Amino acid sequence: MDTSKPQYYTRTAQILHWIMALIFITAWIIGFYSGNFLNYATDGEFLDTVITLHKNIATTIIFLVLIRIFWRYTHPAPKLPNTMSPQMKVLAHIGHLILYVLLVALPISGCLFSWTAGHPAPVMYLFNLPTLVQPNPKLLAIFQPLHVYLSWFSGLLIVGHILAALKHHFIDKDHILESMTRQPKK
Ligand code: HEM
């Protein structure tokens, strides 16, 4: 039984979490679709449109994660419930840390992939991020697989994150999921 007093993320942290979850999962599905189900020989123009959509959505994560890290730093997260073992708490913290690292590394690797291939990194169909690296086939051969492997790893981690949240809610019946959806009663 979880006897600790429920604690909640701030409303700002909750909004950032759910907006980023939506953007991340949408960008992931679109990237996976274009990378594995389309090819230039048969879907040329459509493939371009889909990759452009992927980039325009995904680059927003770079801005949101900076706000989120600042917010996390200035507003500590709720404590984990006392029903969790110290080992599980350490594992949860490591998992969350890796998720933050991926939220930064994945979109940046995508930009590096695009730039080294000679393409822009557009944001919300509004503007392009400044090109920080010139087209370079040698670097492209590094950043392309880096982006793909990081995206697969992040997909696995996100699935684990969702399953863990559901286990806490439905099996352990603690208030971890609610700490990201509710606010304390006044
Ligand atoms: C949170 C952000 C991002 C996520 C979750 C994500 C996810 C993915 C995934 C799952 C793939 C498919 C990998 C595969 O081939 O199996 C992919 C491919 C790709 N991503 Fe991203 N990505 C993100 C950010 C970006 C950014 C910011 C850019 C560039 C500005 C970018 C450019 C690309 C490109 C060019 C491909 C190749 C698509 C293709 O080959 O058709 N990605 N991404």
Give a brief rundown of this model.
The chain has 5 helices and 2 strands, in the order H-H-H-H-E-E-H. It is mostly helical and 186 residues long.
Question: Would you give an account of this structure?
Answer:
With about 190 residues, the protein is mainly alpha-helical. The chain has one domain (about 10-180): Fumarate Reductase Cytochrome B subunit (Up-down Bundle). Helix content is about 70%, strand content about 0%. It has 5 helices and 2 strands. It has helices spanning about 10-35, 40-60, 60-75, 85-115, 135-170; strands at about 120-125, 125-130. The protein has a two-stranded antiparallel ribbon. Helix 1 packs antiparallel against helix 3 (about 60-75), helix 3 packs antiparallel against helix 4 (about 85-115) and helix 4 packs antiparallel against helix 5 (about 135-170). The model has no long low-confidence stretch (mean pLDDT about 95). The site of protoporphyrin IX containing FE (HEM) has 24 residues, from helix 1, helix 2, helix 4 and helix 5.
Silhouette:
elongated
Return the CATH architecture.
Up-down Bundle
**Helix/strand order:** HHHHEEH
The number of distinct β-strands equals 2
Structural class, by secondary structure, is mainly alpha
* Main beta sheet strand tally, sense and closure: 2 strands, antiparallel
Q: Strands of the biggest beta sheet: in what spatial order?
A: 1-2
* Ligand types: protoporphyrin IX containing FE
List keywords for this structure.
single chain; 186 residues; mainly alpha; Fumarate Reductase Cytochrome B subunit; two-stranded antiparallel sheet; 2% strand; binds protoporphyrin IX containing FE
